[in-house]
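This section describes the prediction task in plain terms. A model, or a person checking by hand, is given the sequence of a single protein chain and must write out its three-dimensional structure as a string of tokens. No templates, partner chains or ligands are provided. The sample shown here is typical of the held-out split.
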Amino acid sequence: MKYIIPENKLDKIVFKYLDINLKGLEKRKSKDYKGIIFAYPNEEYKILRWENDGTLYIYYKLIDKISLGFGLNESNSKSIIGRWVIDRYKLEVKNTLSRLNLRR
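The expected answer:
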């Protein structure tokens, strides 16, 4: 059976999931470009990368987890992650892109 969940309620549910699962992320300025990276301490790969032009790069496995866990397509998953970054970190997100890895 499928349930229809309004966007604001879906946001609340996914935001809580992201809060719990991304709890240990560190926010720090990038040395390689003008922007911010979000990564776990001492990890090589970043989970999120935000650039000053409003572009948010999202590690593809996070998108997959949201898509599979909440029955969303990739585009909707990227959008909701973008809204989470706007809400939690007060950053302007104009565009969201998926990345295989985020070393920089």
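For orientation: The chain has a mean pLDDT of 89.
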